[in-house]
Amino acid sequence: MRYLRNILALIGFLFVIGSLIYGIQLQQGKNQEITKAQEIKENEKNVAEAYQISAIDIPEDLNFAGEAVPQQDPEVMERVDREFLVNTYWQSNALLLMKRANKYFPIIEPILAKNGVPDDFKYLAVAESGLQNVVSPAGATGFWQILKTTGREYGLEVNDNVDERYHVEKSTQVACDYLKKWKERFGTWTLTAAAYNAGPAGIQKYMRIQKVSDYYDLLLGEETGRYVFRILAIKEILSHPEKYGFEVEGDDLYKKVPTFTVEVDTVVNSWADFASLYEINYKILKRHNPWLREPHLNNSSRKKYVVEIPNKGYYRETK
User: Fold this and answer.
1) How far apart are alpha carbons 297 and 270 in whole angstroms?
2) How far apart are CA 214 and CA 186, in angstroms?
3) Which pLDDT belongs to residue 294?
4) pLDDT single digits (tens) 38-72
5) Which segments in the chain show pLDDT lower than 70?
6) How far is CA 161 from CA 150, 157, 290, 298, 299, in A?
């Protein structure tokens, strides 16, 4: 009996010890959860303290292509302020524009300079397309949003096989020719920019009806009325990103892959087969030559085309 009592006492003792250990571990777990919750709350507080949403100080010397903005006009400044706020606090879009600009501005800038078109018009391309080969509901296409009829009028090839509105260099040249033509008619680059968006006939109509000759005096539709102001905001933010809270390092930006060119003056039955000759695939070929619109090239006229091929080693091996 004594042996049995000792066994029972030992079991009871171990149960008490186990309960105490379990209680201690349970309390420690609760303490850890409380600490973790406090850390999360503190981190959230720190983020909130670091991320301040505030009004924006507008520069006092705003201009488009060297033409001053009438900043003494309160109505004009409200419109300026709207675009600065929208484009500053749409952070993801602004970052993407900065990244793409690093890749494509070096292509666009020398063409503008060669044609005597102010450098600010590169921001018009940003406003038009976000530096992407998009297509508008009206069929305007490419970085410069060129209509099919306009492209053909200015010498671009536009058909099922080839659409040079997607060719950055050639479409930029067309944009320059178009802008210079209408600058002669309107007299200012600001009105010329507005005409690029609304069409020259539309701007002429508004000027005739309203009897004014300055963009900032015109009452325009929503899109064109915001157009130049949006370009002004994009120009300022992309030119001085740190001033508007963006921290972007050189490695964060998109870069153009080095390429070499190949001349093609024959029929191409398969661009995929053509790409494989250079150890790339059809997708990569199209990425560098978006103006190729079909997987083949008819080329019955034996026209000479210049195709860009990326230097070896910049893409993973094709499968």
Assistant:
1) 8
2) 9
3) 96
4) 555 555 544 445 567 888 889 999 999 999 999 99
5) 1-51, 317-319
6) 18, 9, 11, 7, 9
Residue type, 216: Y
Q: Quick one: which of 310, 254, 238 has its CA closest to 132?
A: 254
Give the chain as a DSSP string: -HHHHHHHHHHHHHHHHHHHHHHHHHHHHHHHHHHHHHHHHHHHHHHHHH------PPPTT-EETTEEP-TT-HHHHHHHHHHHHHHHH-HHHHHHHHHHHHHHHHHHHHHHHHTT--TTHHHHHHHHHSSS--B-TT--BTTTTB-HHHHHHTT--BSSSBBGGG-HHHHHHHHHHHHHHHHHHHSSHHHHHHHHHH-HHHHHHHHHHHT---GGG----HHHHHHHHHHHHHHHHHHSGGGGT----GGGS--PPPEEEEEE-S-BS-HHHHHHTTT--HHHHHHH-TTB-SSSB--TT---EEEEEEPTTSSPPP-
Instruction: Give CA–CA dist 312/279, Å, rounded.
Output: 8
Q: Which two tokens stand for residue 168?
A: 């950055």
Assessment of whether the complete model's pTM goes beyond 0.85: no
pLDDT for the residue 45:
45
How many Cβ atoms sit within 10 Å of the Cβ of residue 224? Answer: 20
Q: Identify the CATH number of the domain defined by range 63-252.
A: 1.10.530.10
**What was the pLDDT predicted at 314?**
80
